[in-house]
Amino acid sequence: MTIVKTKIDRRSFIRSSVLAGGGMLLGFSWLASSCSTNTPKELSMPDEWFEINGFLKIGENGLVTIMSPNPEIGQNVKTSMPMIVAEELDVDWKNVIVEQAPLNTDIFTRQLAGGSQSIRQSWPALRMAGATAREMLRQAAAQKWNVPIEEVTTEAGILIHKNSNKKVGYGEVASAAAGLPVPEEVELKEIDDFSIIGTSRKNVDGFKIVTGQPLFGLDYKKEGMLIAMVAHPPAFGMKLKSFDATDAKAMPGIKDVFVVKTYNDDYELQWSDITSYNELVAIVGNTTWEVMTAKLMLNVEWEPISDSNRMNVPAGLESTADHIKKMTEAGAKTGREVRRDGDPEAAFKNAAKIVEQIYTAPFQAHNTMEPMNFFADVKEDEAVMAGPIQTPEFMEKTLAARLGLPLEKIDIQMTRMGGGFGRRLYGHFMVEAAVISQKVKAPVKLVYSREDDMTYGIYRPAYHALYRAALDTDNNLIGFHVRMGGIPSSPLHANRFPAGAVDNYLAESWSIDTNISTGAFRAPGSNFNAVAEQSFLDEVAEAAGKDPIQFRLDLLKSAQENPVGERNDYDAARYAGVLEQVREKSGWESGASDKNRGVAAYFCHNSYVANVVDIEMKDGRPVIQKVYASTDCGIVVNPDAAVNMIEGSIVDGIGHAMYSGLTFNEGQPEQENFDSYRLIRHAESPKEIEVHFVKNEIDPTGLGEPPYPPVMGALANALYKATGERYYHQPFVKNTFEA
Amino acid sequence: MAVFNLNINGKQQQVDVDPSTPMLWVLRDHLNLVGTKFGCGVAQCGACTIHLDGIAVRSCITFVDSVGDKKITTIEGLSENGDHPLQQAWLEHDVPQCGYCQAGQIMNAAGLLIANPHPSDEDIETAMHGNLCRCGTYTRIKAAIKTASNSE
Fold first, then answer.
1. What would the mean pLDDT of A221-235 be, rounded to a whole number?
2. Cross-chain Cβ contact B133/A73 below 8 Å
3. Which residues form the 2Fe-2S ferredoxin-type domain (chain B) (predicted)?
4. What is the ipTM of this complex?
5. What CATH number is given for A217-309+372-447 in this structure?
6. Which CATH number fits domain A2-211: 3.30.365.10, 3.40.1160.10, 3.40.50.10320, 3.40.109.10?
């Protein structure tokens, strides 16, 4: 039995004062979804809801509404987070309604979608929210029956007093429970007693999604709402010079055309405030098509920025050819030393064999299927915002500063997001929407076209890595050297494997400034490291004449038994665990195999994933027949959804490594829609994906990012087997398959 | 501006819009049918797929003045109670991640099944080539289409 003090999270149990006397009628929001497999209309709604704590309320008929605190970007937290609350509350999942919580920093902590941390960091608070409510319900029943609370048990939403054979539903004592003090400590369930966690539950928004009901920011509507679009400079390093709005304004349905300044000059940007184009031209009108059409009539002059403190490269307009040249030069020079173990120089000097390779990856656009958009209704004394944002807490502060309103007057509704992948961590579009609404004094929905979205990105940086390995005469890895950099940031994680497994180790880092805006992209840094490092290790294993899985396992064994250095940030046993599992499940044969197979494993965002990829060549093109995945993410909350996430990550990883890249000419992105920017399509995805988990009782860790990087390395290694060529530069398709 | 009489999901609807307006925006902005999604505007992603007389088309490049009296079906009208075999199969396989592209995927798949009720894997891959899923749910989409085609 686990007893936990509720104190640390008592902030989460603040109840609105109006509830003190009993119940309160609360409206049924369009952000609510039923967990029943039936359609929501078949559920009978209660007459009253009793708020037990900030996470949940119970109707007099026993229905339970659980608030999902974090933004939903497709990682399925809107289902899995409430599952954790429901588990400890001990309620039948089909009697649960899930509602997307608004931003409320008084009740919830870390309402953010990023870093694969939603489940990991909320695990204790979500369990406690359910357990506390269950305790209060038990207390209410004990008082009603005049029995000790210890004698009151629960079973799927029913309170039971076994000795007197009394039973009562949660709903019947919810009103009384809502008035009770929050207990000082509560008992959490044993893992063996879980009946919801660890069982597959369908996406709570599934029915709405397949029937096309409004869910997303772009679907948001309000009476009197106008549509806005913005025109941004065509190239990074340019700004607005002048514009003539006469023709655009004369177009039907157009209300206004004006300049929007996203951030004020004296405003100090926080990390989520990335802006490449601070001055935009806004076009506001009645309907989306009218505004899109009028935008084409806009006469705007842009000019290179010559002297601005927002510029990183004042000299101006960058092209991909320059980037490659600069990265090649930087990669050839000694970088900033980040970690050193032993004497790497001596190891390389004494080596019998040295393997050395360079890897590169291009800028990439996030390309969420739902383009950037936001609804804003800004009045003199308040702002109501609704739309897709991964960082509502941060953007609330930005908006308060920009609009001159106190934090509590900024209301942010989180809509379901048509993808995030890191792009919606950066909410400049929210500020743009708010400033436009403020100017036109009306509710406004800002809409980016696909071209706007792709050419004003917060891109994945471009990366470059030099790897060197020193082998002795017995083919032991005696030295390892990595020198990594990027535009504008280095992806190096110096303390990850194989650090800790090699006596002589050197990690260096470098970076090159740019005017191009970049930011977090699914598994930042790792999304390149895994490809480069895992391809390189494959080549080193080959040079050493060793099986690639056994080669890695030997290194991990060494890291586990005799770790080099003290800052190694991975668990070598869990790392080895996923490799061993994928070896077994894929029927991996060391030595000659008639299959074109590649393996890779990676650790990031607290979880471990290993893949084996099988490729067949058909008409000179690779066909991915099967991908095996082994994952250690601790307790798996919602297994089928976790499998879905891993399958999707595999398709996404293969897609980005194989096909996707953004190039620049004179600061201008050369791809601006899906006709020129390649994303993976149906026929190119694996024919079969087999997912396994390492079972343990470790608190759950993230899944949004960890399954994304390693498959790219396994793909590169399988391609080598299939074609006899190594794939060092992404996108791989450029190397061979696309003539 | 001009008045158009459209047959949408079995109902006659009247809109007064510019003749060059794509059906995508007629549906979304004028008729409040937002299940049809905007993804690219150039018929490259399939998120806006609707049916004209049972044939899957991209509504972002289907202009309102080209529709005439053809019957328009959107995701909202694919079935009365959300129980089209594809919708059921989508739920059974719990296909969506973010969910944004899925209405377009379902409408495109529904067009496929009208023309070819029992498609092979290759038929599915070919027919679904124009529908992007950024979350990578392709394997589940294919499984759901096969389930639905077997149930008919």
1. 97
2. no
3. 2-78
4. 0.99
5. 3.30.365.10
6. 3.30.365.10
